[in-house]
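Methods: holo model generation. Sequences were used as deposited, without trimming of termini or removal of tags, and paired with ligand SMILES retrieved from the corresponding compound records. Each pair was processed once, and we did not select among multiple samples. The sequence and JDE SMILES for this entry were:
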Amino acid sequence: MPLRIDVITIFPDYFAPLQLSLMGKAQQSGLVTIAIHDLREFTSDRHRSVDDTPYGGGAGMVMTPEPWGQAIDAVVTDQSTLIVPTPAGKLFSQPVAAELAHSTHLIFACGRYEGIDQRVVEYYRPRIDVRELSIGDYVLAGGDVATLAMIEASVRLVPGVLGNPESLVEESHQLPGVEYPSYTKPPTWRGLDVPEVLLSGHHDQIARWRAEQSTIRTTHNRPDLLPGS
Ligand SMILES: COc1cc(COC(=O)c2cn[nH]c2)cc(-c2cccnc2)c1
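and the model returned the structure below.
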């Protein structure tokens, strides 16, 4: 069953990169189908407006619910998962990407301005799986870049998309933490040598060295990922 993805956005051009490289091949292979929808096609006023001033005051504008209701209704089924990228969401992660990779239908609602009228989430929550997801603790101008990141992270985990599942195996069995440093030819570059152990052919020593390097890097860069933290 191919994974179907519908993206609703006011900037469809943001998603041109999905036609390239791995994402493009995934679509050609029939494993994934991705459709981009312009939210403004679902407006009914002459100005095709999608936002208005916030109730309760405050800076900025909020996206009105009706165009979203029309756009989501046009693609939603009872198998859909609605994903709203937002700084207020639960943190997206590799396990979440793996879950999404095994979904049937994902709808990404890319908000702009200060966000989307909360009643859109409230309306669909009792009907389908709705997930407000954050890709990190910073504020983007819209959910489009977050959607690209989540699609790329998820689609690469769809069985058959990655040529060499080998790299996925290592990724999934890897110690929790960051990956070890990688090297390739030439053996010396600008006076810098590749660590001897990697040229030794001693696979158990190489595995030990890589685990050690991963722990050193995790301790330094991401202590929050260390086991037991
Ligand atoms: C749907 O509601 C949104 C969506 C977005 C775009 O997503 C992100 O920024 C994001 C997603 N993961 N990490 C960051 C931005 C806001 C927003 C909030 C406050 C002030 N300005 C804008 C609200």
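The first strand starts at residue 3 and ends at 9.
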